[in-house]
Known about the structure:
Elements: E1 29-34, E2 38-45, E3 48-52, E4 62-63, E5 65-69, E6 72-75, H1 76-85, E7 90-92, H2 105-113, E8 119-121, E9 128-132, E10 135-138, H3 139-158, E11 164-169, H4 175-187, E12 191-197, H5 198-208, E13 219-226, E14 231-242, E15 249-261, H6 266-284, H7 295-312, E16 317-326, E17 329-336, H8 337-343, H9 345-348, H10 353-362, E18 369-375, H11 382-392, H12 405-417, E19 427-431, E20 436-443, E21 449-457, E22 462-463, E23 465-471, E24 478-484, H13 487-491, H14 495-499, E25 504-510, H15 513-519, E26 525-536, E27 542-555, H16 568-581, H17 588-615, H18 622-634, H19 643-653, E28 659-666, E29 669-673, H20 681-722, H21 725-728, H22 733-750, H23 759-807, H24 823-848, H25 860-883, E30 948-950, E31 956-958
Parallel strand pairs: 1-11, 11-12, 13-18, 15-19
Antiparallel strand pairs: 1-2, 2-3, 2-4, 5-6, 5-7, 8-9, 9-10, 13-14, 14-15, 16-17, 19-22, 20-21, 20-24, 23-26, 24-25, 25-29, 26-27, 27-28, 30-31
Helix pairs in contact: 3-4, 5-12, 6-7, 20-22, 20-23, 22-23, 23-24, 23-25, 24-25
Amino acid sequence: MVPRHWLLLFGGPVLLLVAFASLAHGAAVMSVDLGSEWMKVGVVSPGVPMEIALNKESKRKTPTTIAFRNGDRVYGEDAQTLGVRFPPNSYSYLIDLLGKTVDNPMVELYRKRFPYYDIVEDPVRKTVVFRTGEEQFTIEELIGQLLQVSKEYAEDSTGQTISECVLIVPGFFGQAERTALVSAARLANLKVLQLINDYTAVALNYGIFRRKEINETAQYFLFYDMGAYKTSAAVVSYQLVKDKATRETHPVVQVLGVGFDRTLGGLEMQVRLRDFLGREFNKAGKTKTDVFTNPRAMAKLFKEAGRLKNVLSANTEHYAQIEGLLDEQDFRLLVTREQFEELCKDLYERVTAPLDKALAGAGLQLDLINQVVLFGGNTRVPKVQDILRAHIGQELAKNINADEAACMGAVYRAADLATGFKVKKFITKDAVLFPIQVVFDREGESGAMRQVRRTLFGSMNSYPQKKVITFNKHTDDFEFTVQYAELESVLGKDGVLVLGPSVDLARVQLSEVAKRLKANTADNVESKGIKAHFVLDDSGIFSLANVELVLEKTVTKADGEGDEDESTFQKIGNTISKLFSGDSTDGSKASEAKATEEGEREEEAGGEEAKDAKEGGEKQSPKQKEDAEATKATKPESNGTSSDEAGATAAKNATVKPKIVTLKETIPSKVELTFVHPLDGDQFESSAKKLSALDAIDNAKKRRETALNALESFVIDAQVKLDEEEYASCSTPDEIETIRKRCAELSDWLYEDGTDADAETYETKLEELKSVANEVYARHWEHNERPEALNGLKRMINGSEAFLRNAKNLTKEANPEKDVFTAVEIETLEKAIRGTIEWRDTEVAEQAKLARNAPVRLTVKAIADRMAMLDREVQYLVNKLKLWRPKVKPTPPPKPEKKPVAGETDEEGTKEPSSAEEQVVEQTPEKDLSEEDGGEGLKVEEIDPTDTLKNADGSDHTEL
């Protein structure tokens, strides 16, 4: 059907069918809460608010499980189901294995909990590799595939391609875990905008919806989380803070203290309940086989323990039931909540420790905390809530979604970081959990080498931030080490469990130090040491930005001398400074302002260095003090003296104060990571190819399933339709017999030889069947759609006739003043309408003589073509009417007016006064656009095109 777009003219009907196509630009982003047990995906896209993406089962969270079997790859609930039958092929609780070597205590604990996995060591990186038969998967490959399926959920939800994300991590993740997760995201073709700690994401989500309650006074909240694998607590503050640079006030959430227990969580409770059920089954003696030696039975017990744990959170007792647990023996046992709590008695004693650690780290008492807010699935356990409630002496806040709060906070952060979105600013300041220090050797006063430690990022320091350390006693190539610091005070005896046996992060080797120093040796050049710049970004990932040699050069010259040394850019800068400062003499004010600014910047950097030196126990040397005094002496004087007096003094002394120029030269550095190396280089490419091959298999499988379903559906649909009168009447007996025979053959083939056919074969057979049946379907469609098409043609004819009646009144013969249309145009439209009516009546009559199974004479396309022809004729006249303008009649020239002579009487009897008798009673002066009247007339403002204008936003803008 062609679109009809007529205007409502002359009282005629509206015929308006306009199709608009909107093109959406892909700018959607997502967040992923990749928990140990569940995975949640948050999305935000243009015009759509933040929401949780649904998975294939239309659920808001997905089990973090992936399984492989006979070349098939499944996720979520399907993977869990497969894992009950084939436990070694289904992998879950993976996130806590990232960035760890196989000898890490957390890996040993994982092996103990799930003994049926075959975990081997990566020969290069010493990390975790799962082996099942001939297949092997690194931990990054498994996590990457989970992130890949989360990306698919997000893209299905938004209908857009997604390439950027924010990932949620536990706050105690170190450098190895964070870099490993970024590598896994790269395998999933995702760009990580930020890694955000789980409690920070929840605190951000909590503050977003309570923005109006935040003021200049700090408010303190404690967020308590008990998940599947761990428990954590964080003390945060909410406060409105004014930005010194922009003068804007924004809410700020800052992490003040953090406490955690690495192994306290719902998984440990579920494992203990699983083992309890296993022991009870063995006690029953239904079989001689030990249930703990059978992986499939252990997987069934684990699944039932999880269900039982959740039920006992709301009930005091419940039956555990498993059909055919082992050797076809069923298992049924009544378990009470008291029994479950007795199993976890020692775990409940550890519930309040993270909360107390967080308060201690923040330096706050419990009475200053506004609320203790719960999130995480296992905070629903009644015993946990009772312990916390008794400990804090107040009710617990449950006013956030325990499952989705972190994901929604992270997707808000993703929208803030991504391009294409503008959100209300909400600043987050996270805190360093594990201090980082620099360790290097330096020669002491006695000549012996001693080890020096400098803290870069202390415990609970806010990040992101940058730090600088100055090495001012090294004159030759040297190296230093970056490592975790003060772990005993932060982690106690659990340091090895959290971060592994090694505390080293990186080894940095500096080269060409002596060469660069020698190249810059001069009487007026002084070395200020080698400065190493370190960065802790908003993902909590540490890096060395650069290393540079800093030199100060003293330049002394008399007035008017050395101009040839001044660069072109400096001359241009001085000229611009004079123009805008209004100083036409020597530009001394601009120079003073520049020097002052440089001095402030250097002082700020020096403050960082002084702080580091203080933390390391060093004092400023006498030489440094002399340098500081000399630098201070070279700073410009205050502005108390006028420029004229300054110029006179300068002329009198005929000398200029020495100028200090700071020079920086890059020192080559080589960084060698000493923690678990991230997946990179050839290994990364190999993993990417492996995942691409799996994707190709999945895509081929989806194509085959789609083609098979399409063929089966078409066969069944064709057989059903031929039994219906409306379709059977549109086909001949031969066609019906051919279609039925073909469908029967395909049905037999599908369930015999065609079970293993490929997608291309299914698609070919479907096209062959369609070529036979589509003729019947086309006739049925024509007969069904023809009445609506004829109704549309009828409405168009009626509208055209109404237009024609009004158009006849706009001709020269009918209305000379509104001669819009000519007689030929009116006649042409009239013929088109009359011809269309005749054609319709003839074709309808001829089509009615034909049977439904005969070839169609009056097609919908023919009707549409007639409508298009009639539409063109009317549209031509409509456009002409839009452009028509009435003709303007010529104005006759004015008659000449006879001027009466002074003293004579005019025709009306009024006497014209003579010059002597002239008296002006009232006079309105004409507007004089010149300035010859001394400014008394109307003045015209002259605009200089080079004047500086003010924009609407208040900024200066020069119109050129």
